[in-house]
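Data deposition worksheet. Section B asks for the primary sequence of the deposited chain exactly as it was used as input, without tags or linkers unless they were present during the calculation. Section C holds the resulting structure in token form. Section D is free text for depositor observations; keep each observation to a single sentence. Incomplete worksheets are returned to the depositor.
Section A, Depositor: J.P.
Section B:
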Amino acid sequence: MPNFAQLFEASSKLLQSLTDNKKDPLHIGEAMACWTYLAFVNNIITYEEIGLNTTTDPGVKELYQDGLKMANDHKKQLKKLMQEEGVGMPSSPESKPYSDPSAIPIGTKFTDFELANTININFVAAADMCAAAASQCLRTDLGLMFIKFQTEKLSLGYKAKDLMKQKGWLITPPYYQPPGTPHPEK
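Section C:
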């Protein structure tokens, strides 16, 4: 299976060599896309910290650790770009201190099923935001940054889906049966 990060990196370098318009100022839509995604990431970081404080499942814990690492990386890249471009920063919630998952009473903490499904929804929402942002960008460097973020979020989404399938936690909609198609006997 190809390494998506390596494929993206090679494609990105090729596109950058063909067109480089980093000198253009950000237009208002690009600035808003950066600001909105950073605000989203800031809040997701808090949720991921809470998830790490809640779960005891090794697979869910790994998902949250990977998600937190990625979110912090996206935050760092966005903040650097926004500072260079003079774009104001959204407010950010306080970091959550470490707590012992077994100290949280049952009934007041999320289950591993809930944590896995919610982080997967966050991966999907982030990927959608990045796709919309990339499609609005005129600057190649900015568009590629959002495509990179989208690719990274999608890869974590696939990892989450695999874990959720393995654990029986994947929520799937009913299968579509077009009118008139034969239904298999059960």
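Section D:
The chain has one domain: 25-98+107-167.
The two ends are 36 Å apart (CA to CA).
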